[in-house]
Amino acid sequence: MTNTNHTLNSEEQTIIFRRIIAGHSRLRKHIYTMLKIGETPVCQCGNPLLPGQKLLVALQNGDMPEADCLLSKHKQGADHHIRQFYLDSALLQVCRMDRKSFADKLIRCRANVNDKRLYSVMLAAEQNCTNTIKRLLGCGVNAKEENFSGETALSIALNGGYNECAEFLLRLLKPSEVDIKRMAVRLARFGQSKTLELLACHYKLHKISQTLLRPAVLSGSKETVKTLLDLDIRC
C-alpha cells in the first residue's frame, strides 16, 4: 500500500516545482518575482537549466565571474555522473578559450583530462592555446594520444600553422614519438612552408627527401618548393 504521508525533502520539492512551471513562462516569472530570486535561465525546451548547464552557458558567454561563482556551487543538486559530464564539457570549453587559470580550477574539481572521447589537449592545440596545453600535460595528459582520425596535438598544431604551439610540442616529444614523414608530406602538399621550415629545425628532413618535393610541386606553392630547395632537399 502506498504511503501518502511521505514528506518531501527540499530537493524533491525543487524538482516538482520546476516540473510544474517548466512549460509556463508567465507562471515561472510570476513565482520567481514573488520569491525575489530572479528568473532562472532556461534551455530551448523551456526547462530550467541544471547547475552544470549554467556553467557552460556562462563560459560560452565569456562571463568568467559568473562561471567562477557557479563552479563553487557545482556539486549541488545533480547526480554525480551529470556533474562529471558538465565538468568535463566545461574543461573543453576553456581549452578552446585558452583560460589556463579556469582550467586549473576545473582540474582541481576533478575534471577528466584524459577522457578519450574528449581530447582536451587536441582542442587546445586547435586554438593554439599553448598555456592550456602545458597545464594539461602537467596533469598527466598524454601528448602522443591520437584521436579517431589518427591526429595528435602536434599534427593538429602543425596543420593549423600554429607555430608557437607546435614549437613547444616539438621540443617536448622525442623523434621516435613523432610520425615525421607523414607530417612533412602533408605540410608540403598543402604548401605550408613556414611550418615545414619549423619542422626542419628539429628533424633532418633530407632523410625523406624523395617524398617531399613532389607533393610540394603538385601543390603549386613556389614558396614551399623554394623552402625545400633552400633546405637542400632534392628528389
From TrEMBL:
Species whose genome carries this gene: Plakobranchus ocellatus
The protein's name: Ankyrin repeat-containing protein
Highest taxon above the source species: Eukaryota
The organism's taxonomic lineage, starting at the top: Eukaryota, Metazoa, Spiralia, Lophotrochozoa, Mollusca
